[in-house]
Amino acid sequence: MKHIRYYLLATLAFLFVLPLAAQVKDSDVLFTVGGDTVTVGEFRHMYLKNIDQTGGVKQSPEEYLDLYINFKLKVHEAKAEGYDTMADYRHELAKYRNQLAEPYVVDPTIMDSLVREGYDHLRKEIDASHILVRISSSDTTEAWDKIMEIRKKILAGASFEEMARAVSDDPSAKNNGGHIGYFTAFQMVYPFEEAAYRLKPGEISMPVRTRFGYHLIRVDSIRPNPGEIHVAHIMIAVPRRAPEKVREAAKDTIFMIWNKLKKGADFTQMAKKYSQDYSTAKAGGVLPWFGPGRMIPSFANAAFALKHNGDITEPVQTPYGWHIIKRLDLKPIGTFKEMEPEIRKKVNRSDRLKYAQQEYVSTLLKQYHAEGDTALLEEFAVQAATDKHQLAWSFPPETGRKPVLMFRDQRVPFNEFYKYIHRLYITPDQSVDAFVKKEFDKFARQKVLAYRKAHLEKEYPEFAAIVKEYAEGMLMFNIMDDKVWSKAVKDSTGLKKFYEEHKEKYMTPEKVVADHLVLTNASLLKKVLKDVKKSVKKGMSLTELVKKYNKGDKNVLVLTHDTITPSEQKELAGLHWKKGAVNVVHGPKPSLWVVREVLPPVLKPLKEQLGIVTSDYQDYLEKQWIAELKKKYPVVVNKKVFDELKKELKNDER
Question: Which CATH number goes with the domain that contains 217?
């Protein structure tokens, strides 16, 4: 609410108390539907959200109250009919809630630091090379020893490129010596990116674990990120195994095009005529915006080397052929404030969130005082070692019920952990004891994270509100589809009956067949009008009259014959539309409308307006259904609370 300025200090306290005493609280009940309560806070939130989404107040508080009551009636009926117990509904809601929960199970300070780190990384581009050693099983010792030996040899003077060609499990290394090229934030898996950005040019990293295996990373150079560029190109394609004659012909063609461009030929037209990138040629060779890491280096480097909009490169060779590139525009990287919303979205969609979540779960394990039954786990490891492949143990029922994990108010029975680990594969060379400990840690993390997600509504009211809004929206949609939308489409008998009972809504408007006579000389209006009236009285066509006035090269009158709908044309409002009437429309070029025939309204066939009638029938069914629901479920509005709320809402809108 906007504050009122008070000028008299003596009355300030008194006047300030009055509005507070009258204010409604978010917890106040605004209305009930069949016993279900709707608070002021919920209604206020939805009303203001409606304003934000429509860009202005589409409904008054009174109008929106009616709409929201109708919405709640439908939701109440959906619950009464068990829509909230249906498997599809519960699955869809759980899926949505789980997605929504992800940002809530990350420490906000960690999220903020990841967003800032993402921006800092985006400001630079790294040119790097790597050597990959894949991990063949969950036992990483062999892979670790191998990559550490490779690192030792490189530090002792072995060529990184030669080692990459000889031992890297990245297939491309045999050709490129492990060279990746330039990249920036969000273009590599996070552990790789994070490690690379901590290195200085020439440094060799310690082994970096990603889902692909272990990497050794060498940073070759670092440069500022130039942003994104918009270019057009002309391409002459060269197939990979093309014979020399084809390669020479392609080179000759691209240089011929370049020479024409230097002499002033239009780039767009040349692209349309010659470019063999057929996906862009019709548009003059224009490509989408891109950053350096999104194109092959030879193309990107040439594009970003252009200094001004309109500049073009000399012919550039890439693995795909020859290109001439024209710079259209350059967009430098924005400020942190400008880019923060987009970076935050990228963090939420990237594997960064998983790493942030792991840190958060570690904190929760301590916060919840999570403990495992060490003795029980050791006993299981001893018993399971007799059949490592199955991790089998025929334990008594009381052991299965015994808590193996304790935190907060949770006592997770051993049965649950056994079901989890019994499905996993353990290789012959692995230690059962180490395997059980590692998997129990994963199991405990899953349970703690699931518990945290299940209790988010208690800690975050905004989360609870979003989930409730989505859940009720789904219920309303599902029951509306059954009771109104699909019903109207399927109920052909009811639809036809509705159409017959409301024929007046589906009539064509009255139409008029008329002669339209336009005068190019306004001074002749009086004379022409007199002649037209005579012709109409005698039942004559106006064609002869037009010939009379347009003798020789004159073009005094222009005659057309039209069938019009006067009610749909504002400029014809107020004229007489009876048969034989002659209407005058004044203006720089006055005109006459001579009514020859009046066509009465006609009922349009149902099939010609099925969509409109179906929509009207749906509205009719909904109104009937709402009336039934209001009889079935009492609606009680707290008028006093609503009146006070209206005042607040109207003041907020000023």
Answer: 3.10.50.40
Same domain (yes/no): 219, 262: no
The answer to whether the CB of 535 falls within 8 A of the CB of 515 is no
Could you read off the pLDDT of 219-232 as tens digits, one per residue? 999 999 999 999 99
Rounded Cα distance between 325 and 277, Å, is: 13
Nearest Cα neighbor of 369 from 342, 417, 406, 329 is 406
* 496 in any annotated domain: no
d(CA 553, CA 326): 56
CATH number, position 531: 3.10.50
Domain span at residue 2?
Answer: 1-80+638-654
Instruction: State the average pLDDT over residues 195-218.
Output: 96
Q: Decide: 233 and 277 in contact? Cβ < 8 Å.
A: yes
Residue-wise pLDDT tens digits, 147-191: 999 999 999 999 999 999 999 999 999 999 999 988 999 999 999
The answer to whether 225 touches 125, Cβ cutoff 8 Å, is yes
Q: Is residue 503 part of a domain?
A: no
Q: What is the dihedral of CA 404, 405, 410, 414, to 10 degrees?
A: -30
User: CB of 157 within 8 A of CB of 241?
Assistant: no
Reading the block at residue 184, the tokens are 């920036």
Structure tokens at 631: 């009889």
**pLDDT tens sequence across 37-64:** 999 999 999 998 887 665 555 678 999 9
